[in-house]
Amino acid sequence: MSDTSGQRKVLHPDPDDERRGSQRHRVLKSGLAAYNKHYSTLPCVMRNESETGARLNFDDLASVPIAFTLHVGVDGYQVECERVWREGKACGVKFVSEKTPSRIFDAFRLSSTETALSKEMMRAMKLQEQSQDEGEGQPAVIEVRERQPKSNKPTFGRRS
Fold first, then answer.
1. Is the C-alpha dihedral spanning 105, 25, 99, 95 positive or negative?
2. Strands in the chain per DSSP E
3. pTM for the full model?
4. Number of H helices, E strands in the chain
5. Dihedral over alpha carbons 25, 27, 30, 36 (to 10 degrees)
6. Is 106 exposed, middle or buried (0-12, 13-18, 19+ CB in 10 A)?
7. pLDDT at 77 over 70
8. Is the predicted pLDDT of residue 12 greater than 60, yes or no?
9. What's the CA gap between 105 and 71, in Å, rounded?
10. Quick check: helix, strand or coil at residue 14?
């Protein structure tokens, strides 16, 4: 229930009287609400979570369907949800299926440190390791310079 100020009325302030079956935990996780056979998605922020449901914040709650699949990127799972209540930009959902692994966020994760580093930096690290292995007292100082244009002319629109 809501009053005229937009705040939710708490009918039972005692946590033992809550309707949810498990304790909720405050979290701050990004997620995606997928619907329309995963052809449409809406970004959301999970504000609290329990074993049976969650509180989600959306930019535009009017476009959120009643049933959707929630993908949580940090934890790497997906779960089918039904919207139970909504208020302002927040809504409460209950989980209607088991949590299963989600691969929707895999493209955003780095596979390893070596693929994230540039070739020049990797070469510099290998040379420094080699110089330390040879037994020199001081480690070699290797300077990695950025590539400079071949001429002083502006390179706008030119391909190198």
1. negative
2. 25-35, 40-49, 53-58, 67-72, 77-87, 90-95, 100-101
3. 0.56
4. 2, 7
5. 20
6. exposed
7. yes
8. no
9. 8
10. coil
Topology of 15-108 in CATH? Thrombin, subunit H (2.40.10)
Q: What letter represents residue 86's amino acid? A: R
Identify the DSSP state of 3: -
Encode pLDDT of 113-129 as tens digits. 555 556 666 677 777 77
Q: How many CB atoms lie within 10 A of CB 73?
A: 16
Rg (CA), the chain: 26
Closest CA to 21 of 67, 53, 55: 53
d(CA 20, CA 12): 12
> CA-to-CA distance for 76 and 101, rounded, in angstroms?
6
Pull the structure tokens for residue 31.
Answer: 């997620």
Per the document, the length of the chain is: 160
Which residue did the predictor score with more confidence, 56 or 136? 56
| Cα–Cα dist 51/22, whole Å | 6
Q: Name the residue with tokens 């580093």.
A: 117
Residue 38 confidence (pLDDT): 87
